[in-house]
Design goal:
heterodimer, A: mainly alpha, 76% helix, B: alpha+beta, 1 helix, 43% strand, globular
Chain lengths: 321, 159
């Protein structure tokens, strides 16, 4: 248990009476410690109690879900939506802890989708996923720009990304041979566009949103190029351009590391090195996979992974120094 | 200024969700209903709660019609009564002019989906589903189907 003014006062008073220290020194000693603190046991049990209460409410609602009238379900959701938006704006205005603002705006961005899904469940509707996500996207279109909240921006980006997915699968699956290849190409372009458009956040001084945009863009483009030609329903063992594409992923992330170093953006250095590590390991597995026995492959791949983690970590520290 | 705009967005979101709910509720309460024969397939969904997937009799085109393209083609199915239930009378790429009720669906070969292939049931009720199911549907303007209730042996299911 940490010492507090309350626990120290009897000792300090006695030291003053015994002329070991002066009253001023006693006051200075006491001022260094907090007035009072709860014991770790109290804090621990309070957290456990709070979590149990929250879990209990969730379980009670879920167990009686079908018995709850539709209007009550929708009313609860609309109340949550209203509370999260209003609390988010209030928290932002009064400069409360940023985490409160972000959690509120996260809910404000996600709850319209929950509302739409709830209504489809009420009336047993199962229509177009594209229409559902489009309605959600439209309902939060301006939210990240008005709230300046990174959390709502990430949800906004995810809804945009989902919109592209449903758009491809429902309407334009055959643009580039099949759905998977079309998806890879469109997502590669989308990632690049995200990273480029994120630079606009600089104007408003929103560097966190810019960092998220750059990271999401880099990851999306890398993943799309990396997975080009991979179709889980129609696996093709030989894709003639995979070396070129994986090489492009490596070079793209090398450029990201360089840009991160020049522009002092740590996230680009970290992410770029991590993707480069994955690409190197993938190259090795792909090339060595057919030549080595399973045991040798596991052993060499594990050793390579350890070397990569150690080397890239050292490299990252050197770059960011 | 931004706070006011955020509040306006909130009001629009609330109005949109309430409006959507009211619209479907209105169709459910006031729309003319039709009985369609169906069968349960593949029950349960871990994420969305218990539901049963349904395969409708009108979800498969009879042999007398040409097979549709395999591209989720938009089709309009005109219904005709056959006893207490309704079945396919005609298939077209445009809505019929007048007369019989029709449904808008998405066709792939001989399969037509209407967006009502899922029915949510209370927890645990999706495990034993009778095979002789009849779906009571309401039809929104434009031929969009809305599943209202299921019947088995003339009684609402699940009870």
């Amino acid at each position: 248990m940490k010492p507090t003014q309350k626990s120290l006062r009897p000792h300090v008073t006695r030291w003053v009476q015994e002329d070991l220290i002066t009253q001023d020194q006693a006051n200075s000693i006491l001022a260094k410690y907090p007035a009072d603190s709860r014991s770790p046991a109290t804090v621990t049990f309070s957290i456990i109690g709070g979590l149990l209460c929250i879990l209990g409410v969730i379980l009670l609602i879920s167990a009686n879900w079908q018995a709850i009238p539709r209007e009550a379900k929708l009313g609860g959701l609309l109340s949550l939506l209203t509370a999260s938006t209003l609390l988010g704006t209030e928290s932002s205005r009064r400069k409360w802890h940023p985490a409160i603002t972000e959690i509120c705006y996260l809910f404000a961005a996600a709850l319209p989708l929950v509302g739409l899904i709830l209504i489809t469940q009420f009336f047993n509707l199962r229509g177009s996923g594209f229409t559902l996500v489009l309605t959600w996207f439209a309902s939060i279109l301006l939210l990240p720009f008005l709230s300046s909240s990174p959390a709502s921006f990430v949800v906004w980006w995810m809804s945009f990304s989902a919109l592209i997915y449903f758009g491809i699968s429902e309407y334009h699956s055959g643009w580039f041979e099949n759905e998977a290849r079309t998806g890879s190409i469109v997502y590669a372009l989308f990632g690049a566009a995200t990273a480029a458009a994120s630079q606009l956040w600089t104007r408003g001084g929103q560097t966190i949103q810019r960092a998220w945009g750059e990271s999401l863009g880099l990851m999306t483009t890398s993943l799309a190029l990396y997975a080009y030609g991979f179709d889980i329903y129609d696996p093709e063992p030989h894709i003639s351009v995979w070396e070129v594409l994986w090489g492009a992923v490596f070079l793209l992330n090398l450029a990201a590391v360089f840009a991160g170093y020049k522009l002092h953006r740590r996230h680009l250095v970290t992410l770029g090195l991590a993707v480069q590590g994955i690409t190197i390991l993938s190259f090795y597995l792909r090339l060595a996979g057919s030549m080595l026995s399973t045991g040798t492959l596991f052993l060499s791949a594990g050793a390579l992974l350890l070397i990569l983690i150690f080397a890239l970590h050292k490299l990252r520290k050197t770059i960011l120094k | 200024m931004k706070t006011w705009l955020l509040r306006i967005i909130l009001v629009l979101q609330l109005a949109g969700l309430i409006g959507l709910y009211a619209y479907h509720l209105h169709i459910e309460k006031t729309g003319k209903t039709y009985l369609i024969k169906c069968q349960p397939v593949d029950p349960r969904d871990l994420l969305s709660g218990d539901y049963i997937s349904l395969r409708y009799e009108i979800g498969a085109l009879p042999e007398r019609f040409h097979e549709l393209d395999y591209n989720n083609q938009e089709v309009y199915i005109t219904l005709q009564p056959s006893g207490p239930v309704w079945e396919i009378q005609d298939v077209g790429k445009v809505p019929p002019v007048a007369g019989m009720p029709y449904l808008k669906g998405q066709g792939n070969g001989r399969e037509v989906k209407y967006g009502i292939e899922r029915y949510y049931v209370p927890e645990g009720k999706g495990k034993s589903v009778p095979n002789d199911l009849y779906a009571q549907i309401a039809i929104q303007p434009g031929g969009i189907a809305q599943l209202k209730r299921l019947y088995s042996d003339g009684n609402p299911w699940p009870k």
